[in-house]
Amino acid sequence: MCRHLGYLGPPVPMKGLLFDLPHALATQAWAPRDMRGGGTINADGFGAGWYPPGAGAPVRYRSAMPIWTDSALPAIAATTSPGAFLAAVRSATVGMPVTESAAAPFTDGRWLFSHNGVVRGWPGTLAGLAADLPMEDLLTLDAPTDAAALWLLVRARLRADESPPKAVASVVADVLAAAPGSRLNLLLTDGSQLIATTAGHALSVCAADGSVVIASEPLDASPSWQPIPDGRLVVATASTLEIS
User: What's the rounded Cα separation, in Å, for the pair 239 and 187?
Assistant: First the structure.
């Protein structure tokens, strides 16, 4: 059911969170600890998005291959030190395509988005909610997956000037009403804030020393890691953390 993480704080090499820490994201790809019955490994692609200083939009790197097979990413991660980034590894739901375009993060402008979970009864259960989306959005969907469709729903509400926390929380509520039992851990950032939800899957947060990391599983044994209970909305900046 995928693993993801987001970071905000002083610029740091991405390699630490992606590869170097004892339970870094690349390790979670092949040895996750808390999938909660949603598969055993995350080998169906990966992606990372980060914010270069002064850039108007994030840079994104994605692949349909397992993260541990990619020869370029370790060097990129070792030489790239952003103050904000989002990364994910994918475990594709049966019947959904394994393609680069299906891997998170999804993006629009400054936004990066990831989904960890599954929409029950896809695609029929989302048909009612998708009916309100512009046809052009549906025709240009990144991939025929529940995660890409969830991004369209969140993006539409952001474009309608809903606050990011409200946009994410309202999509989770509406999808759970339409597709009960769905797993909807969403992660959204614009480089200045992280918004995350827990709905049926694991999530932890580590806030210390002017930085915050939100991740599906703790990356190391630091006592600063805090598990997030189910049914929560997390809104964080590098210096603030709100769990509601």
Answer: 18
